[in-house]
Amino acid sequence: MYTSVRLFIFSSLIVCTVKAVDHNNFKTCDQSSFCRRLRATKPSDTKYELNLSNLQISDSSIESELINKEADVSLKFAITALVDSTFRIFIDEIKPLHPRYQVEGALNGEPQVARLELLDRTNNEISIKSGDNKVVIKAQPFKIEFYSGTKLVTIFNGRGLFNFEHLRAKPSTEESADADLGDQAPKESEDPGAWSENFKSHHDSKPRGPEAIGIDISFPDAHRAYGLPEHGDHFSLRTTTSGSLDPYRLYNLDVFEYELDTTMAIYGSIPVLYAHSPQHTVGVFWHNAAEMWVDITNSKDGNVVSSIVSLVSGHKQDVHIDTYFMSESGVVDLFVFLGPTMQNAAQQYAKITGAAPIPQYFALGYHQSRWNYNDEDDVQMVVEKFDEHNFPLDVMWLDIEYTDGKKYFTWDPIKFKHPEAMQLNLTATGRKLVVIIDPHIKRESGYFLHEDALANNYYVKNKDGNVYEGWCWPGSSSYLDFFDPKVREYYSGLYALDKFTGTTKDAYLWNDMNEPSVFNGPEVTMPKDCVHYGDWEHRHVHNIYALYHTMATFDGLLKRSGNQLRPFILTRGHFAGSQRYSAMWTGDNAADWSHLTYSIPMCLSEAIAGMSFCGADIGGFFKNPDEELLQRWFQTGVWLPFFRMHSHIDTKRREPYLYSTDIQNRIRNALRQRYAHLPVWYTLFHEHEVTGEPVIRPLAYHYPSDVNVFDIDNQLLVGSSILARPITESGVSSVNVYFPGGAQERWYDIEDFKPYPGSGSISIPITLDKVPVYYKGASIILRKDRLRRASTLTHDDPFTLYVALDHNNSAQGRLYIDDNESYEYRKKKYLYIQFNYKEGILTNNLVDPDASYTTSAWIERVVILGPPAGVKRAKLESKKLGVQKLQVSYDGEGRSLTIRKPAVLISDIFTITLEQ
Ligand SMILES: *[C@@H]1O[C@H](CO)[C@@H](O)[C@H](O)[C@H]1NC(C)=O
Ligand SMILES: *[C@@H]1O[C@H](CO)[C@@H](O)[C@H](O)[C@H]1NC(C)=O
Ligand SMILES: *[C@@H]1O[C@H](CO)[C@@H](O)[C@H](O)[C@H]1NC(C)=O
Ligand SMILES: CC(=O)N[C@H]1CO[C@H](CO)[C@@H](O)[C@@H]1O
Questions:
Q1: What DSSP element (H or E) covers 76?
Q2: Atom of ligand 4 nearest to the CA of 363
Q3: What does the DSSP assignment read for 483-550?
Q4: CA of 724 to the centre of ligand 2 (A)
Q5: Which of 467, 544, 628, 739 is the most buried (most CB within 10 A)?
Q6: Which residues fall within 8 angstroms of residue 207, CB to CB, at 6 or more apart?
Q7: Residue 836 Cα to ligand 4 middle (Å)
Q8: How many Å apart are CA 450 and CA 608, to the nearest integer?
Q9: Closest residue (by CA) to atom 10 of ligand 1?
Q10: Is 421 in the pocket of ligand 2 (CB under 6 A)?
């Protein structure tokens, strides 16, 4: 969270408007020296040349020297074939003046290499093949072409904009700066910010001078670019090179009252982009933790001229996308995912950076948060009111005020005097607690954490080598240097139950403010010339500070439980790989319809960038939602993976029981939908961990060749079987829903089971009770329809199977269950069951017959949507129950057929046959 009121008190440096984002606090590309320099790069076919007479070819890679002829500097160049249609390009200086930073900690281990085959070699060109993909590397002009099969899909340096600023000694002011540096060296006169830079009252000393890198990547034939979270923007990335838009900026920042419809940076940065066409999708991921800006030019957006037209194919192409990635420092470590589908490319990315491990079941339930629940009685009262009004609730949250004076790992001695008893009360009703722990540490003598950090040298240093001090919630603060393994080890130990006294095993964590947020720092963060472990400047590692923070917390929670319980952590700052440790949310949004609308594309962008576990503060963090907005926010939040209400300290209380009966009923219905579908969410998270497929998906993911869905981001798919079109506009009496898949596809409204063909846009009548959500024909959805006060109490509850038939009268679906909290599933203690329906017969089988888990959960109902006519009864056959007759009934309109009480265990193998 972030409040302007306190900002005024703490900081004399920042003048902050209360109304909306203060643009003056944040740089435009034009105010950033490296972005300005790189964006001005002119195409050059002659500057870089690959030395093909100096080529090392191994089983999986090719290495050579890339020569900057103008500056006479040699770079190491390598291209490596990886498994799953992935290539990796690496470029670094051979003899840099200082080592250049290479990211650690983001990848999920060392990528697995694949065999590479030399196809052809000439004086100027070398062709290689790996799997079905071909790569052509050209020496002069330096260029790399990627082919999926025979189709050219991606070009590195197709426009000749590649630019690698080698490190150099600072020219003395007297001599001419450019004498032996070539025109790549920015001249002081050309760019006054190259060797040191001011922004507002902040000075960046840039001890290593200019060291930026620009990468030019084109996608012939691509219609849309997606990805590059986090931005308050639509799912489909816009052209930034014509008109007034800045490039998409990736720099983790705590932006007060962030705006929408903008390319400005906010809390997280994931430098992965997907280029999509009806025929294929490719992805690129620049493994680089420095500040980055990305220019996008989509030929569909009007008068954009591109040199690629002539360079690539010699004839005009109707659609293509050019991108230019600009990073302040580091090396080129670029992954290219050749798909060929979006599904493949997303999985290829997940293979490199890892998937989120399945969360505990409770984490998918409903979370109630506020800045702040005042004291123990307040917590107790809120929970009691939830129970009294029959609202399910899994987790209560405590924001910063629970601490003793913003000293983390302590409790306010008056308001939270019995934290353990408070948690035992929560545990007794099946609930958990989440408390906040931020990375800034109060500089107060006597505070154990501050004293430990000073004594052991655990803090980030300023440019002069002294401990860095900034302002944050506690006032004067210093920041733990999580890049130091000793600091992570120490920090993770702080979560031990006997260290963080007052916590129980049912207390989980929220790591906020970890961009890091520094109220009086440049752009509300840490100065770039601060120094971290290993002598790296903050500039080199900024975007992974939060990743390392959550890494240490994750380790702490694991150790706390003797590696038994899956940690739950919510983070605000994030980078590629953060999904392995934490869920994220879209930060400090506002109670506006627009923020509700953008919560969907923002989470979709995160999902294809590996961060499936995403949500937005229900009701909006700032300001007060009216009743309609609040209920719509609940109805929308049901269909996003992370489901939490949260609000600013100055807002009115908004717990659901405070509203009129009508509103309460609608919120309760929304919660009921969420809890009924928890088995679906849980199964999807299991499948995500195994396959890397995102849990929520844009329509283009499953309908890649339907150009009508390319810009749809007010609808989403939960897995492949649920289509939701949340209502994010006020006062509507109808909305258009786009039904994909073609005339043969069927979509069933999940409430009245009315079927719709997949033949495009249909106007759907809307009331305040109505949210258009559909099951796809051909799917079997497993639900738990009994409403309880918490998900932890539903473990043995019976299932209802919703069998949504396709036009062939068939359907399939899967269910995953385990003990819902431990790692026993990694020892095959789980059930993964496939259900099949074909022409009147429902059967099941174990997808993984070696796995087992004992459960008393049973099937209480089977509901067939789009059923055959004239069914009189059903017959159940199972080993345990033998043969049994079951009663059936149609609903009034014959849209569904319910088979009553099969009463067979969910783990039993059975057959149910419909009888005429
Ligand atoms: C290219 O590599 C060869 C073999 O190592 C070397 O002799 C030659 O000088 C290199 N060319 C340039 C321009 O550096
Ligand atoms: C725990 O619950 C009991 C019984 O409702 C209540 O009396 C007590 O105050 C609660 N303790 C805390 C710390 O909330
Ligand atoms: C329907 O059945 C026909 C014949 O068995 C098959 O060719 C077709 O692929 C099926 N369609 C679907 C959507 O399953
Ligand atoms: C996190 C969670 O849902 N835990 C529950 C898992 O199921 C057991 C019953 O088998 C409950 O006791 C846990 O509370």
A1: strand 73-82
A2: 1
A3: TSHHHHHHHHHTTSTTTSTT--TTEEEEE-STTT--TTSGGGS--TT-EEGGGEEHHHHGGGHHHHHH
A4: 40
A5: 544
A6: 463, 529, 537
A7: 28
A8: 39
A9: 51
A10: yes
Q: How far apart are CA 795 and CA 906, in angstroms?
A: 12
Query: Hey, whose CA ends up nearest to atom 2 of ligand 2?
Result: 425
Which ligand sits closest to the CA of 68? 1
d(CA 203, CA 95): 29
Q: Which ligand is nearest to the CA of 75?
A: 1
Q: Given this model, what pLDDT does residue 316 score? A: 52
Question: Which residues line ligand 1 at a C-beta cut-off of 6 Å?
Answer: 51, 53-54, 67
Nearest CA to ligand 4 atom 11: 792
Q: Is residue 651 in contact with ligand 4, taking CB distance under 6 Å?
A: no
Sign of CA dihedral 40, 44, 46, 49: positive
Residue 196 has pLDDT above 80, yes or no: yes
Question: For the whole model, what pTM was predicted?
Answer: 0.95
**Are 55 and 122 spatial neighbours (Cβ–Cβ below 8 Å)?**
no
| pLDDT for 303 | 55
pLDDT tens for 675-724 read 999 999 999 999 999 999 999 999 999 999 999 999 999 999 999 999 99
Per-residue confidence (pLDDT) for residue 171, from 0 to 100: 84
- Nearest-CA residue for atom 9 of ligand 3: 808
> Binning pLDDT at 50, 70 and 90, where does residue 3 land?
very low
Cα–Cα nearest to 270, from 292, 253, 255: 292
Alpha-carbon distance 897 to 412, whole Å?
Answer: 57
Write down the pLDDT at residue 182: 47
Is residue 512 part of the annotated active site? The answer reads: yes
- Which one of 438, 512, 706, 818 is the catalytic residue? 512
DSSP readout, 156-224? Answer: ETTTS--EE----PPPPSSS-TTTTTTTTSPPTTT-TTSS-EEETTEEE--TT----EEEEEEEET--E
pLDDT of 912: 98
Question: pLDDT tens digits, residue range 243-278?
Answer: 899 999 999 999 999 999 999 999 999 999 999 999
> Which ligand is closest in space to the CA of residue 777?
3
**Is the Cβ atom of 808 under 6 angstroms away from ligand 3?**
yes
C-alpha span between 160 and 466 (Å, rounded)? 43
* Ligand 1: centre distance to CA 53 (Å): 6
Residue from 399, 438, 588, 706 carrying the catalytic annotation: 588
**Amino acid 45: pLDDT:** 84
588 an active-site residue?
yes
Q: Give CA–CA dist 721/778, Å, rounded.
A: 8
Q: Whose CA is nearest to atom 9 of ligand 4?
A: 795
- How close are the terminal C-alpha atoms of the chain, in Å? 61
Nearest to 845 by CA among 853, 833, 855: 833
How wide is the angle at C-alpha 851 spanned by C-alphas 845 and 856, nearest 5°? 75
Checking if the pLDDT of 373 tops 90, the result is: yes
In eight-state DSSP terms, residue 685 is: H
Give yes or no for residue 380 CB within 6 A of ligand 2: yes
- Contact 889 CB / ligand 3 (< 6 Å): no
Distance (Å) of CA 861 to CA 317, 708, 794: 55, 37, 16
Give the model confidence (pLDDT) of 82-137 as tens digits.
999 999 999 999 999 999 999 999 999 999 999 999 999 999 999 999 999 999 99
User: What local confidence, expressed as pLDDT, does residue 698 receive?
Assistant: 98
Residue 437 has pLDDT above 50, yes or no: yes
